Request: fold
Amino acid sequence: MTPLECYQEQCKQGLIFEDPQQLVVMQQLQRVYSDLLSEHRKRQGIFSFFHSSKMAQGLYVWGGVGVGKTFMMDCFYNALPFREKMRMHFHQFMKMVHEELKKYQGKKNPLQWVAKDICDQAMLLCFDELFVSDITDAMLLRHLFRELFQRGVCLVTTSNTKPDDLYKNGLQREQFLPAIAMLKQNTTVMHIPTTVDYRLRHLKEAGVFYSPLNETARENMEKSFTLLAGNHPISTDPIMILDRSIKIKKRAGDIIWFDFAEICRVPRSQQDYLAIAEKFTTVFISDIPIIPANATDTICLFIGLVDVFYDAHVRLVISAAEPVEEIYSRGYMMLEYARTHSRLIEMQSIDYFLE
Reply:
């Protein structure tokens, strides 16, 4: 499946929304994909000894948060069938470069050795979120880009800023300008001007409260988590809150997903929820049951959780057996739950989510 076919399939399945600006970028990624496949065949062919490496023109995609840059690059990267490729967050790449430089300390022109090692592994580099703020990195990149491009490496990168604004107002920026010139020469620069945050558009369409507990609710929870998590690594390891371990379904960046039975039953407390609100901006809670009238501890904890998250403006995505008003419909905490009911309704609004 080619990058463009991958994108179209995701649209067909309703996993993403087709966007004209994204389609233009995908067509360029399709072009890079074809050029790389052709170049890879030449390098692997029987006459590869006589073939001088030719670099495929890369792509520099920039735009605001949530416009789909990382997703499109992943479609492109995953479609390439060869192994001579490398994809990482730009900060991870620079960390790797600094570690490699230590290996060649004392050698003449150590960056040439680092570039050679990279080229031995990959004919394609994919960077997520290219951003330069450190003077050391800026000076390194000027020479590293030259070495990599001369060796025929193709670069596909995303960024929140256009090339001309990289390292803007940085110390000795004039020495970094050749790196910008090389980026513009060796990649096609494309801007995605849309202001739509596609990670949140799904939530506007599907909501953030899924009921009843069926396959559709499960799929919506998974889809929402994936979209909001973006390219952050996902972990399923328990977290430590107030020196106590709490099982989770998964977490990514400042997003975390709990099962209701883990987060709203003793020995949890309001202090746990305050600590969670300090660490995470979005909390998923799945499989909220109907809470019976005699489950005093459970309803008290649930009310406390909603109060804390509402006050801290934590975004809440939940799946439940019944609509909000039916989760707790009888019992002596009905007056207190009326406030929770009201807050949960407000927290479902897209305005609350986007504030």
Q: What stands out?
A: DSSP finds 15 helices and twelve strands in the chain. The longest strand covers residues 282-288. Residues 60 and 189 are 5 Å apart (CA to CA). The mean pLDDT is 86.
